[in-house]
Amino acid sequence: MKKLLMTMTVLSMTLLTSCGSMSGGDVLITGTAAGAGYLAHEAFDDPLITAGVAAGTYIGGKYLQGKWNEDVAEAYKKGMTEGMAQATILHYEGIQNLQKGGKKSHTVEYLEYEFPGATERNGIKYVPHNIKLRTVK
């Protein structure tokens, strides 16, 4: 019982100290490594095997986390490349359309309003100016 209580205390301390300085994935990896180390300790009762299993589990988890991060970065880069390619195609089609004498396909018309700016507010004097407001028609 004392052995189990000590192991659970070490495991909970490991997890609690991990929570403050690591992300959720790191906490999961650390907890899994601690759990694997505990199971190895219960099964073999050899400190070398226990340490090896815990370290191997932690290293394996970090490797998988790194692969996941690489996949996410690669997917982001692929999406950016596809977006740039689509923008290039739209730009090329717009130029071709203009060369044929057509109008731009995405013409946006704006309305512009001009208002005189405040020259004095709350006792503060401002330089006379106008405020321009553009809105989509």
Keywords:
single chain; 137 residues; alpha+beta; two-stranded antiparallel sheet; two-stranded antiparallel ribbon
Topology:
Layout: H1 2-21, H2 24-44, H3 47-99, E1 110-116, E2 120-121, E3 124-125, E4 130-136
Antiparallel strand pairs: 1-4, 2-3
What is the total number of structural domains? 1
Distance between the termini: 77 Å
| Global structural class | alpha+beta
Q: Biggest sheet, in brief?
A: 2 strands, antiparallel
Q: How much helical structure, as a percent, in the residues?
A: 55-70%
> Helix count, per DSSP?
3
Give the DSSP E fraction (strand runs of 2 or more residues): 5-15%
Secondary structure tally: strands? 4
In angstroms, what is the radius of gyration?
A: 32 Å
Question: Quick recap of the structure?
Answer:
This protein is of the alpha+beta class and 137 residues long. Helix content is 69%, strand content 13%. Helix 1 runs antiparallel to helix 2 (24-44) and helix 2 (24-44) runs antiparallel to helix 3 (47-99).
Question: How would you portray this structure in words?
Answer:
- The chain has 137 residues and is an alpha+beta fold.
- It is built from three helices and four strands.
- The chain has one domain.
- The model has no long low-confidence stretch (mean pLDDT 79).
